[in-house]
Amino acid sequence: MWWIVADQHAPQKPEIAPLAAGLRSETFPVAMNPDGKTVNAKIAAFIRTAEQGFYEPWLSDEQINHIGQVLIKDEQTVTAVYVDRDDAAEAAWGSAHTQVGFDADHPVGTFLDYDKTLNAGGPDGPIDARLITVVTVSPSFRRRGILKHMMTSALARAVEDGVPVAALTVSEGGIYGRFGFGCATREANIQVDLGEGHGEGFALRREPAGRVISADPVKLDEVIGTSFEAFHNRTRGSIGRQQTYQKAATARWNPEDLSSWNRKLRAAVHVREDGSIGGYVTYRHEGWETEPSTIRIGDLIAADDQSHLALWDYIAGLDIVRRATMRTAPLADPLQHALVNPRSYKVTGLRDLLWVRILDVVQALEGRAWSVDGAFRLKVEDTLGITGGSFTVQVDDGAATVTRAAAPDAPVTPAAGSAAEDHSAELPTLQVSVETLGSLYLGDVSVRTLHAAGRLGETTAADVERISRIMDLSAPPFCATHF
């Protein structure tokens, strides 16, 4: 290792923001009643409140219990903010709140977090990630510190647990940058013309090897697990999946009624020439009133590119179908370039998906992929005080060694006699906010682009070119997991 470091600082827990008077918060794991089949009233009220926050219908007890069982399997932790009824009774609106509002078990703020892994492309495989979801605040109790309190509490727990990154998906894009989250992956809505009467339809340049067979969704449990594991390990940007995916892909979870089977779901599996399974696809027909006749792909997970193309070829060969749509396609999709007529493939929309918050610069960057060997200085500003400071990044053989200086402006001293001793002062410097570092982390956006956007502080154009060669990656990341 090239560098002598004066001090090594661990990430610091952020200051937990207070709640306004009359509010209190609780954090607790999801648990079932002693019967093992039903959730308690407090969890049921939490789930109903969260679902209403996203404009979903009032769920039945049976649906609530199904959700509760899934939350338990993923070991999800609940944070809820409640109105203190005694305090509210003294407010002018208190009696009305008691008369017409929801009962005391219903929170005015909801928040869930749990752990999965994130593939950042590093040499040691996926890293731990704290996932955040189901964040809602009652419209009646905005501007009272609820979101800031729940978020800083969750980030403090993640830092205490030694998790290097946090991640979430967002309904509104302007909310989470202030907490240090940066947009890190995107996905595409696509429409693929399959049959006659729509240009040249669907034709691959080369027939994929192996065979795709129709499958009973109910029998896919093992296939789903092994296929996603292979996909996850090979796909930079992939996040580990929660139990809802297993239930949805096996038809046990109907999006229109969580307590019933999805009887419209169909599935197929790609079998390689050696007999092993390379991936699966789930889909449904959109109905005969849809023109042209359309298949909607729910999930397509492949362990390799040949399986990816073979599953698409199967969809294209379905009878009386002229179009396929998919809402979760990668930006760099090999299908588009495998088609004889690339215009059969249309991108109908793009949107951000995964937002990443770096909690430990050293762990996170050492778990990341890099383009070429080299070294640079990194200065990170973190308004929450979790992981800001000055670092050096040295990449050798595709793996990074990251060290932290004693202070943001402290000089980095090369080891005596090292090859870098005469060149340490010449290292290029990248100056970013922790939000911007989150956007750079998985390689969705380049150093050059963020420099052009004015987001790299005092980083010079010459330094941008040198750092870009080291940090920018050749293909965009892809996350196939919503949460």
TrEMBL record:
GO terms for biological process: aminoglycoside antibiotic catabolic process. Gene3D superfamilies: 3.40.630.30, SCP2 sterol-binding domain. Residues 361-479 form the Enhanced intracellular survival protein domain. Signal peptide: none annotated. It holds the Pfam family Acetyltransf_9. This is N-acetyltransferase domain-containing protein. CDD domains: NAT_SF. Residues 251-357 form the Eis-like acetyltransferase domain. One of its GO terms (molecular function) is aminoglycoside N-acetyltransferase activity. It comes from the Bacteria.
